[in-house]
Design goal:
Helices cover 75% and strands 1% of the residues. The chain is mostly helical. It has a single domain, classed as Amino acid/polyamine transporter I. A two-stranded antiparallel sheet has the order 1-2. A hairpin with a 5-residue loop joins strand 1 and strand 2. The radius of gyration is 24 Å and the shape is globular.
């Protein structure tokens, strides 16, 4: 099954060669014909959005329901491993790696920009830039970053961890299909599934790297005057990808774990800055109120398909996110499985679903809520010397309209225009860079793990090669159209793998029922008469 020598030593030759051919063709085609590449992704994603929007909405909701039911079922007591196995990592390290791998760059990129977009207009309000619009904006943002994406990660990660640690199969995507196709997972069917997983992972991670490098470029421009340009962004991709590759060579227990824990401490630091220098009472009230508002609306939002209007809004927000999370699912699911051996199914589901969701909502409240408050309460002095309300004129709305990545730094500067605000901007830029590194090194480790059929320590040469491949795809997507190309690539890459995830869910369901069959009712013995 695995190569014995040469560059493919320790790897699955069929899956590795197929994956490399696909990625190489994309890189060469995108480099030589960037306009044609952008047009191709536009056409593919446009067709998916036109005909399968309902499909994305339905399957992601189904996954969330599946997770909740499974956590509450008798299967929740099963451990991901032998019955006497225990977790390898502490809860803090586990949560740190979960959050860093699962959200990271995207949360920094969109935490202010998305609420501000929805604050101006969305399908659920009649008038933008009001207090009601601000509440709805946060509700939509919570929805996009809440339980649904983590449900996707739970399904993939749980299936991988269960079949690997409890059933002794390789830690790779194909193993989740064992209850359905048996030993054929080692043939062409298994190779196809793993190649689709690699395809989704490479493009999903590359999408995030593209967003991250744009954010870093803007931060360096704000701090040191570096020009915002495609050339500088390509250089940043190269430099940071080299650092990420060095990190992945050290493995999960060292580089990835350490960077994830550093990320969490830096996250705490910048959140404290926003809480102290921002509208503290408003933010705390918004967080508590926002959780309740989210829970009250999560069911209708989960099944809303905009059927009457069929506008483009949902396609370029909700469906983009669902596609993006789906393309990330082999990467994050595999990574979560790697760090979750020994936990029970119930602990796994509750931990992965709830803790990152609550932390993400806190992040969104402190960043997005601060920006909304500044825009809602902004005032100006008119010609008569009177202080009048000037909602939407604080500068953040303008920044989002001109350059999405500048919204973060505009907000931090409005909170403190002195040295503290400058330090916060440096901290935010470092945080994005570290999230960039952890996403890249985790993604590279996952790709090589899949292609080596679950080896805990894939060949170092393959880790280097795939680290550079992910960087190359990110660079090509930037050349092919920036943010729009990144979005269309994520939606396109997710579609074929979504079918695999549904099959994985069915395979897990069957395997659990085979291990713990439904209890039979006890036979009641009736004593003989007399």
């Amino acid at each position: 099954m695995l190569g014995k020598d040469g560059i493919l030593k320790g790897m699955s030759p069929a899956a590795t060669i197929s994956s490399m051919v696909i990625v190489t063709l994309f890189v060469l085609g995108g480099a030589l014909y960037p306009d044609s590449a952008a047009s191709l992704f536009d056409t593919l994603s446009g067709g998916i959005l036109s005909h399968f929007k309902w499909y994305y909405i339905a399957i992601i909701t189904l996954m969330l329901v599946f997770c909740v039911v499974l956590a509450c079922s008798r299967f929740g007591q099963l451990r991901l491993g032998d019955d006497d196995s225990r977790p390898e990592y502490s809860l803090f390290s586990w949560f740190a790696m979960l959050f860093s791998a699962g959200m990271g760059i995207g949360l920094v990129f969109w935490s202010i920009a998305e609420p501000i977009y929805h604050f101006q207009s969305n399908p659920f309000i009649t008038q933008g830039m009001t207090s009601e619009a601000a509440e709805v904006a946060m509700r939509i943002t919570y929805f996009h970053w809440g339980l649904h994406p983590w449900a996707i990660y739970v399904v993939v990660g749980l299936a991988l961890a269960y079949f690997s640690y409890r059933k002794g199969l390789p830690l790779t995507i194909r193993s989740a299909l064992y209850p359905l196709i048996g030993k054929r997972i080692y043939g062409w069917m298994g190779h196809t599934v793993d190649v689709l997983a690699v395809f989704g992972t490479v493009f999903g991670v590359a999408t995030s790297l593209g967003l991250g490098v744009a954010q870093i470029n803007t931060g360096l421009n704000h701090l040191f005057g570096m020009e915002i340009s495609t050339t500088n962004q390509l250089l940043l991709i190269l430099v940071i990808s080299l650092i990420a590759t060095a990190s992945v060579l050290s493995g999960i227990g060292r580089g990835v774990k350490w960077l994830s824990e550093i990320n969490i401490w830096l996250t705490v630091a910048i959140l404290l800055f926003l809480l102290v220098y921002g509208p503290t009472r408003y933010l705390l009230q918004s967080y508590v109120q926002g959780i309740g508002d989210y829970l009250a609306h999560v069911v209708p939002l989960s099944t809303w398909t905009d059927a009457s209007k069929d506008s483009q809004w949902q396609s370029w927000w909700t469906v983009f996110y669902w596609g993006w999370w789906m393309s990330w699912s082999p990467f994050v699911g595999m990574f979560i499985a790697r760090i979750s051996k020994g936990r029970t199914i119930r602990e796994f589901i509750c931990g992965v679903l709830l803790v990152p969701t609550l932390l993400g909502m806190l992040w969104l409240t402190l960043f997005g809520g601060t920006a909304l408050y500044l825009e809602l309460t902004h005032t100006v002095t008119n010609a008569a010397g009177e202080v009048v309300s000037a909602i939407g004129q604080a500068g953040i709305v303008t920044a989002v309209g001109e350059n999405v990545t500048s919204a973060l730094y505009t907000t931090l500067s409005l909170l403190d225009s002195g040295s503290i605000g400058y330090m916060a901007s440096i901290l935010a830029t470092v945080l994005v860079a570290l999230y960039f590194i952890t996403s890249a090194d985790s993604g590279t480790l996952v790709v090589t793990t899949i292609l080596s059929l679950g080896e805990e320590h894939p060949p170092r040469s393959q880790r280097v090669m795939w680290g550079m491949s992910v960087a190359a795809v990110a660079a090509i997507l930037m050349l092919a159209g920036g943010l729009k190309a990144l979005q269309t690539a994520a939606i396109t890459a997710a579609f074929p793998f979504s079918v695999v995830v549904m099959v994985m869910m069915w395979g897990l369901f069957r395997a659990l029922h085979q291990e713990l069959p439904a209890p039979q009712p006890e036979t009641v013995k009736v004593p003989p008469l007399g």
